[in-house]
Amino acid sequence: MRNIWITLRASLVLMVLCGLLYHLAVLGIAQAAMPDQADGSLIYNENHEVVGSKLIGQSFTDPGFFHGRVSSLDYDAGGSGTPNYAPSNADMLQRTADAVEAWKQENPNVPVSELPVDLITNSGSGLDPEISPEAARAQIPRVSQATGIPAAELEEMIKDHTKGRELGFLGEPGVNVLQLNIGVQKKTAQ
Length: 190
Description:
mainly alpha
């Protein structure tokens, strides 16, 4: 009987330590050290309403907005991942051909030869919120025509929203599509 009470007390102490206090400590440290990231890196509009996260892409189909990468998950943040197709896979080839055709329809002023590959391929997570600066620039003619914003202003907006390499040498420069489109929306509302 004594061993049962010792086991129950040890289990209760460990549940409180590992199941509650540890998580509260980690949450407290995260909130103190990096509150934006701990809260999900949320993006707010001018009315202080959450419109998305810096870490999760969204689908934009309106011609007046910049479009992000293809997502086989339809940007469902409930899970991440993408089919690990080989370049010769029939489904992959068809999806890529469909994306190229959609590009031709939506962007008739930009030849396929100038189409950046990140606009027709998935990221590893299927949730990538960023595109390359080249992918953003390739969409300027369509966005300019749809919104009336001069191409030079859109180019400047892309420069303002381009994030450089981490630590100056890791990764590639990227443009957060949601943040860029919020800028487009503000410009068209003026």
